[in-house]
Design brief:
It is built from ten helices and 13 strands. By secondary structure, the chain is of the alpha/beta class. A six-stranded mixed beta sheet has the order 5-6-7-3-8-9, with helices on both faces. It has a four-stranded antiparallel beta sheet with strand order 12-10-11-13, with helices on one face. A three-stranded antiparallel beta sheet has the order 2-1-4, covered by helices on one side. The structure holds adenosine-5'-triphosphate and magnesium ion. Adenosine-5'-triphosphate binds at residues 17, 20, 22, 40, 42-48, 87.
Length: 315
């Protein structure tokens, strides 16, 4: 039996579709109240993992527990505790946004008020519109609304913001923060690494069906991947140096006046992620070492990790 503090527990999970191995020995936990971001390239196995945990797909081997229940055996009462936003949904019927939400609200014991959910996803002006007449991003908002209407304890979000305009994405982030504040556990996949960094507590990085790294968002990839880069211009030439003490370097550079084009760049989650994937795909290859200006300025690059590594970079 899973401890009460664990929302999802996955051990050595594997899945094959005929001859295609989609997951190989994946192990992780999601704690109650946590937002866990599952990140990885197209075809890595993220949706497969989510769909197994939702009870939509059977696993080939391994163990899974979701809110203390094996998803292959979860009944209606268990499903009512989950919120699900699939990566893709079928064609909607001829119903309005409000009708669809009211219909789904009827399946739950303690649903959120329909109008509150419509407002939370910013569809007030479209509440009376047929879903099939909505734009792609507006339909996606309906998917999110359906995922949260039942006040789920655990919310699965498979690329929820695909097609959202920037403002809608920010509004969605606020919605997720308020769900987090209420204690909702969340499993999120996204290709927007800024979104994962904004919302996630921990992340798992998956490639070729294997979990290649897992950890807190601000720690994943290890300390070396986080070393900042100081960049400045000297006689028209861009120079840069990786250093764990950027303030000291900046002070030194500023001794004789304001340095030209000064920047302190901290590797983003996207930088760290891209480096992890490159290292995984080309473990011994030069492809993960600097070859051109872009690589040379990549802050997560292991070949420029020395504190004293100062490089001249083509402007
Ligand atoms: N129904 C299926 N039948 C056969 N193979 C499948 C099926 N669904 C997924 N696969 C394969 O399993 C692998 C993992 O797919 P999955 O959809 O889990 O990837 P993903 O990480 O969600 O990718 P994306 O970022 O593109 O959504 C891929 O190689 C895919 O082709
Ligand atoms: Mg997917």
């Amino acid at each position: 039996m899973t401890e009460n503090s664990t929302a999802v527990s996955v051990r050595d999970l594997s899945k094959s579709y005929g001859g295609v191995t989609a997951l190989q020995g994946v192990t992780f936990d999601i704690h109650r109240g946590e937002t866990f971001a599952l990140l990885g390239p197209n075809g890595a196995g993220k949706s497969t993992t989510i769909e197994i945990l939702e009870g939509y797909r059977d696993r080939s081997s391994g163990h899974a527990e979701v809110l203390g229940v094996d998803p292959q055996k979860g009944g209606i009462a268990w499903k009512a505790r989950l919120g699900i936003v699939l990566q893709s949904t079928g064609e909607p019927g001829a119903v309005t946004v409000r009708e669809q939400l009211a219909h789904f609200a009827g399946f739950y014991a303690n649903p959120r008020p329909v109008d509150e959910v419509i407002a939370a996803v910013g569809l007030e002006e479209k509440a009376g519109t047929l879903i099939r007449k909505l734009s792609g991003g507006q339909r996606r908002r309906v998917d999110v609304a359906l995922g949260i209407i039942g006040r789920p304890e655990l919310l699965f979000l498979d690329e929820p913001t695909t097609g959202f305009d920037p403002e809608a994405r920010r509004q969605f982030w606020e919605l997720i923060r308020s769900l987090k504040a209420e204690g909702t556990s969340i499993l999120l996949t996204t290709h927007y690494l800024d979104e994962a960094a904004q919302l996630g507590d921990r992340a798992g990085i998956i490639a070729d069906g294997r979990l290649i790294d897992i950890g807190r968002i601000d720690e994943i990839g290890g300390p070396d991947a986080r070393v900042p880069v100081v960049r400045w211009r000297e006689s028209g030439v861009v120079r840069e140096q990786r250093t764990t003490a950027p303030g000291l370097l900046v002070a030194e550079l500023a001794r004789d006046g304001e340095p030209d084009g000064l920047e302190v760049i901290r590797p983003s989650l996207e930088d760290v992620y891209l480096q992890l994937i490159a290292d995984y795909e080309h473990p011994e290859s030069e492809l993960s070492a600097p070859r051109d200006a872009h690589r040379a300025t990549h802050p997560g690059n292991p070949d420029s990790r020395s504190d004293s590594a100062e490089e001249e970079v083509p402007a």
